[in-house]
Design brief:
The complex is a heterotetramer.
Chain B (H helix, E strand, L loop, with lengths): L13 E5 L15 H10 L4 E3 L6 E3 L2 E6 L5 E6 L13 H12 L17 H6 L8 E5 L2 E5 L7 H4 L10 H7 L13 E7 L3 E6 L13 E5 L4 H9 L5 E2 L5 H9 L1 H4 L2 E4 L3 E7 L9 H10 L2 H7 L4 E3 L22 H10 L7 E7 L4 H14 L3 E7 L1 H9 L5 E3 L5 E2 L10 H4 L17 H11 L7 H17 L2 E7 L1 E4 L4 E2 L2 H4 L13 E2 L2
Parallel strand pairs in B: 1-10, 1-11, 15-16, 15-17
Antiparallel strand pairs in B: 2-3, 4-5, 5-7, 6-7, 8-9, 9-10, 12-20, 13-17, 13-18, 13-19, 14-19, 21-22
Chain C lengths: L13 H10 L2 H18 L1 H4 L36 H37 L1 H16 L2 H11 L4 H28 L2 H8 L4 H37 L11 H8 L8 H28 L8
Helix pairs in contact in C: 2-4, 2-11, 4-5, 4-7, 4-9, 5-7, 6-7, 7-9, 9-10, 9-11, 10-11
Chain D lengths: L12 E12 L2 E13 L4 E6 L5 H9 L6 E10 L2 E2 L5 H7 L4 E4 L13 H12 L4 H14 L5 H4 L9 H13 L5 E5 L7 H18 L2 E6 L2 H7 L2 E6 L2 E7 H6 L4 H9 L22 E12 L9 E13 L4 E5 L6 H8 L6 E6 L2 E2 L5 H10 E4 L3 H4 L6 H11 L5 H14 L16 H13 L5 E5 L7 H18 L2 E6 L2 H7 L2 E6 L2 E7 H6 L4 H9 L23 E3 L9 E3 L5 E3 L2
Helix pairs in contact in D: 3-4, 4-6, 6-7, 10-17, 14-15, 14-16, 16-17
Classes of the chains: A mainly alpha, B alpha+beta, C mainly alpha, D alpha/beta.
Bound molecules: adenosine-5'-triphosphate (2 copies), magnesium ion (2 copies) and nickel (II) ion (NI).
Amino acid sequence: MAGYLFRRVLQAALILLGVSFITFVLLYVLPADPVRQIAGRSATQQTVENIRQQLGLDQPLLVQYGRYLAGLVQGDLGRSYLQRTEVSTLIASRLPASLLLMAGGILCELVIGLTLGVIAALYRGRPLDQGLMVTSFVAVSAPQFVVGLLLLYVFAVQLGWFPIGGYGTAAHLVLPAVTLGIMGSGWYSRMMRSSMIEVLRQDYIRTARAKGLTRGRILFRHALPNAILPIIAMIGIDIGIFMGGIVVVESVFGWPGIGQLAWQAIQRVDIPVIMGVTMVSAGFIVLGNLLADIVTPFIDPRIKMR
Amino acid sequence: QDYTPDPNATPGGTITITYKDDVATLDPAIGYDWQNWSMIKSIFDGLMDYVPGTTELRPGLAESYEVSEDGTVFTFTLRQGVTFHNGREMTAEDVKYSLDRVTNPETQSPGAGFFASIAGFAEVESGAADSLSGVEVVDPQTIRITLSRPDATFLHVMGLNFASVVPREAVEEAGADFGKSPVGTGAFKLADWVIGQRLVLEKNEDYWRDGVPYLDGITFEVGQEPVVALLRLQQGEVDVPGDGIPPAKFQEVMDDPDQAARVVEGGQLHTGYITLNVSTPPFDQLAVREAVNMAINKDRIIQVINGRAVPANQPLPPSMPGYTEGFDGFAYDPEGAKAKLAEAGLGDGFTTQLYVMNTDPNPRIAQAIQQDLRAIGVDVEIRSLAQANVIEAGGAGEAPMIWSGGMAWIADFPDPSNFYGPILGCAGTGDGGWNWSKFCDESIDAMATEADSFTDPAAPERLEMWSEVYQQVMAQAPWVPVFNEQRYTMKSPRMGGDDALYVDPVSIPVNYDYVYVTE
Amino acid sequence: MVDTAHVPLHAPAPAASVLRRLMRRKLALFGLAIIVIVVGGAIFAPWIVRYAPNEQLFEGLTMQGAPMPPGGEFLMGTDLLGRDLFSRMLYGARTSLIIGIVANGAALTIGTLVGITAGFLRGWVGAILMRFTDLMMAFPALLLAICLAAIFQPSLWIVAMVIALVNWVQTARVVYTETTSLAEREFIAAERTLGASGGRILFRHILPHLVPTLIVWGTLGISVTVLLEATLSFLGVGVQPPTPSWGNIIFENQTYFQAAPWLVFIPGAAILLLALAFNLVGDALRDVLDPTQRGRD
Amino acid sequence: MIVPQQAIVAPLLSVQGLTISVRDRGVVRPLVSNLSFDLRPGETLAIAGESGSGKSITSLALMGLLPANVSVTSGQLLLNGVDLARLPETRMRPLRGARIAMIFQEPMTSLNPVQMIGAQLTEAIRAHEPVSQAEAKVAAIEALRQVRISEPARRMRQYPHELSGGMRQRVMIAMALALRPAVLIADEPTTALDVTVQREVLDLLRDLQAKTNTAVILITHDMGVVAETADRVIVMQSGRLVEEGTAAQIFAEPRAAYTRELLAAVPRLGAGAERAAPVPPEAPIPIARLTKASVHYDVGANFFGRPTHRVHAALGVSFDIRPGETFGLVGESGCGKSTIAKALAGLVPHHGLIEIGGKPTSSLKAHERKALRRDIQMVFQDPMAALDPRMKVGDAVEEPLVIHRIGTPAERRARVEDLFRRVGLSTEQMSRYPHEFSGGQRQRICIARALVLRPKLIICDESVSALDVSVQATVLALLQELKDEMGMSYLFISHDMAVVENVVDRLAVMYLGQIVEMGTRDQIFGNPQHPYTQRLLDAVPIPDPARRARDYLRPSGEPPSPLHPIGEAPTLADLIDIGGGHLVAKS
Ligand SMILES: Nc1ncnc2c1ncn2[C@@H]1O[C@H](COP(=O)(O)OP(=O)(O)OP(=O)(O)O)[C@@H](O)[C@H]1O
Ligand SMILES: Nc1ncnc2c1ncn2[C@@H]1O[C@H](COP(=O)(O)OP(=O)(O)OP(=O)(O)O)[C@@H](O)[C@H]1O
Ligand SMILES: [Mg+2]
Ligand SMILES: [Mg+2]
Ligand code: NI
């Protein structure tokens, strides 16, 4: 167990190293000069060169990367070129909001997706099932920006049930979380449906029925825990997909998360911030997968950590 | 002549303003964004200031100033009893420190170049000296600034945010984080800042100008999509949308008389233009550049942006001194344009690229331009990219055409010289420079230098000269001036104060010091 | 002896029979019809539309510069530049079909190749491939897309390639898991005892079993890729204007969802319908291609 | 055992004119027609019949667990006078598990894999009795003790995969009996188990029934099991009852032709001796020879991902297979039979020497190895799993020819068609898929596939174990016939001693990866020396009700594990020749 964990953590660290290198190279070859962004339009050539030198951007790629790594292992993510603040401060101030939103989104997509998936499986082949299937396509194909604005318009502006954007209370979280979760709920409902159908065919379900258990108990104690197993690995993958959605949702709802930070940084090639956000989100994706791998054996005793 | 505040103004109340993008920094030496420009204006003061709602200079922290005959020595007498937010009194030492700081390469100020005319700038820039030799503290109330050459715009420069006076001890204490905990002499001071969410300014009770500000506080909420901000304004949750009325909502707002009444329209020191890279064929031929100028249907483009601009025919916007009234420029004439192309031997047209920043409405404008040029046989490929990538392509001289929207020149200060230097002068043509046309005419450059050597910026001969400069530029047509954008903003019903304060040409978007709330 | 020989014989040629059995399903037929209409519309667009897709019509905007609502002169209204939306939708279908089918197909192919190779070969090749997949998974897809698109000047094919490069990861994971479990199955061991080569086992025996999974991922991927293209356009690295695509029509106009709802909801509905159609056909195809379902439809 | 007096005891369960039909694409087709029988308290009723005759469907109908498209169309199912067929689900549920319980054929998959044994047991108890969790737990442990599971308290916290098949089946029985139901339906409870385990489970059922007076319906197609356990028997064929009577009657004087056929097909221990064919003589070059062959699997992982343990699945195994011979390999599940087969077929790496036709397999080049594949073919235990479900069976049989590039398409076609006829299938069936065949037919397809390359050796790994007796008999006959005709050798792996005795010439008995006894059929069956061999023979059920109730030597505890820490290997037992090539391990 300890050995397994150690190897997985080592693997995760290597993956993060790879991510950092690829990002660094990509940003290096990107046709945009961060120094121009810092120096402003009235800067003289001399000023530009000064800044380039101060930031070490005149060094060869590998030297720059080495420096970045050296900082990274000491927990130093560098300073933002444009905000002139520690990247770690910027991220730390925005991360909680993003995590909250992500947690809300995952909760939302699981609750909606799994419920619909189970219902569809129970009503397999009937009109309700087909209706739910179409619903799941709608969910999967709806652009998040439009969904977000629509929800905002209907539930916040017209009905006034929720605040119009912003951050703070639980009421603020509902609409962004739903927007973020809708797309995933479509996927989950489809996967849960097929997983559930598979499980409902299993012998042990028949055994449970033969024991005279109620439908509810069979569903919740026997079918669900088994059906949910293949879903767990998906949640790990999901975090990566969420990172993309978060940019859009945060901007619609004025949610102060790292998505907005990333978007602004990309627009203006604020390399330390881009690197920082990338590393943090990659860290979460890796962590998510790691957690999924660690949690699975607890739910499924057949799987050994190896 | 000074400003008479609104007699109906009542003190008290707080207002809410929203922005899409985060506020990067409140360090006056660094801040150069749409969002933080006006905030810095309210937190800090410089020696010079502008009359609210106008482009007229007035003394700020300087009570008075004297200019030497040759226009190279400025002696400022400071106001007495002005204190920083930390309670200490401001002195001439602080002014010197602030100017040294902004020009020091370590500070990496994007505005350092504005101070190039101060004696000793070159030494500081190259790192040979760490203090401007041209700035001398005569006594605690007096500071003398010597220029290496006459500079008509110098007083405007001293009114820029970059010239704000900062207290040394606060800067040194905060170190690199001064931008997050600013200390100035301005009407407001920073009360609270939650990065990415909200920034709260509160009234500086000890402000040196009497009677202002009226507001007790201002809350800036950032990260708000402009459409959402407007929805909130309509619900009464927001007082001023910092990013203006989003195009998607413009029609709706204007169609509702109640809302339209609260829309404020104002001119802006802005010109939207297309740069034509004169160093690459076929734009190295004047006839081709003229053809492009004649091919653009500016009225149609303005229609596409809901009429929120006026057609332009020269680099300067109409409200800028030195604007040439009655200048003809190029009229819309596709047939003439074709003839010009034929004259250049390109009767069959050619293919080229138009770079454009990727935020609405710029790609749309680019498409309108594309259609106009297709009409004269020029095939334009659009490259819609992030701001940084467009700037890079422009600086490297890779972009044959660039639509300036989104990165456009909004003047830093109301002086005609502001539209020349880096964007049309020879200095900006180097690799990475902002002169994206790579247009360089030594004789025009010489005339510009001469115009700037006047001592009085408003001297009629000087303005005449600038007018001449821009006419000569247009004769070579390195740009297609397309329109001068009008600013439309909106306020909540409770907002009071002159409309001009809401479209203040300097303190964009609102001059916080003078507005008030009516309830 | 028990011969449960009660199953009637299916003689006709496979392709024809697949199509025939597909046609027997109402939903699949509906899906097929939509696909045919969309593809037909895309191919024959020049003969169908009244206006060129990029023509900014003078009468397409009001004097205030507002677009025209659907109906009347313009079937689906006009966009913010006064262009005919119907025409843009038809031409946009070309782009979206290329993205949804080619880019998505390429992603599926890459993912399948990586997953199947890693799952079948195991060993260090498999380990390297899967670690690489993990790495790509941890890499924020959008950032990768933005960087790639900024480095290579965006064109339709570059965008398609970028989308393929970003989207293969999930498929690779899923295919990997399935391949490893398939490789454990006894009939694969049986193939080995017959002396079948690795390639033969892979392509003749493992690949066909992945078909249902690939159909599911492939069809779901259509809307995902079409929307990703839209997001890329939004970020300014997608298919460049004025080339229309359903995705970029939505993104260009998304803030106008109140002022000009048709500009958002018509292309939105089109993406939805196309995705739905492919899903319906895919679902049916999966059943029809599955020999163990024979005699049950 | 005393047969209950029929006249006095009222039936507990009475099935009257039961017809069960399936609705398939609008067509209603009966699966069971007009079935009637009675079950009395404390009685064991066996339902026998070939696969697909409707045995399981009948029992599911009793439980009210018929699949959605299958329903009782007429007749009555009276339990104490209540008609179960007409009972709504809400009233049926309390009866299930409490009054009428069922054990299923597949112990491996019938327990919820992610729930602890204890939870699954207490849940069943609490579903019917208003007891506390603690009381239910006590009852559950008691039930486990009843079914003679060692350390019941610890088992409660184990998961199904941590138990062996036999133990799982005992858990199922404990679960079924915990509430002392009046009727227990056991649907092929031992088919998936080893002979030795089967023996234990059957004994257990019998003991428990004697204690609780539960009426048992035992469904099986193994006439040996029927003979050993049943009081009365009904025989079904194609959904109809063909014969009913006491066990003694059925075995002594079967009336229906079908019953006679069924009985004739049952392999009997000792019957093989009648076959007087001589053992093929030793040849200079054996078809295959294993010399001290070992196979191990590494499991577990330490800190650095290196394995910690080793399963010594086969250890120092030596034997040879002579041309034209059928060599048997017997032993319990997990003793390493399949491992030997896989090593021979080159599917797992081995240590020691394996020669095929005199050539050591490990030193072969790739093309030689491929050529070798032509000489050795394998027929697996589960024909469904061994055939690619997405490939037409004709193509599957043709595939080896394609792989080895033999013949033109037309020639191949001809050869495949010929083989289809040889194994008793029609050539039209070539274009069907595996799922469209019965188990016996599928196994013939596998045999055809093995034969198509005309190999010298066919490995039959439990090739008939999953089949019905009658089907088994025909497949065995087919194998014999093909051998006589083509002269190939077989390596015949089975745990069924009766079958082995009927087909092999020589055999080896394996235990924990090693051979414990080897010799000719007559030597082993006539004079078993090793105690393990004797135990295997004792466990075989005898299809004769007159000879039941032998005392069976129960093994004490679990068999030792083949798992050892790396570096430690089990000791090799020497084999001693006790005359005429009869080798026995020194114990
Ligand atoms: N859900 C179903 N739909 C249609 N036919 C079914 C269904 N379940 C069983 N059958 C058919 O009913 C018949 C009887 O099946 P049943 O399972 O009762 O056989 P069995 O006697 O138990 O055989 P085995 O010994 O193989 O278990 C078979 O022909 C089978 O194909
Ligand atoms: N891939 C594997 N990894 C680890 N252990 C294995 C593996 N395959 C088989 N074993 C173990 O090797 C031993 C021998 O297995 P094998 O399959 O040869 O038994 P068998 O005699 O064929 O049993 P059965 O009658 O159940 O088929 C068993 O303990 C089994 O658990
Ligand atoms: Mg059965
Ligand atoms: Mg085996
Ligand atoms: Ni080894």
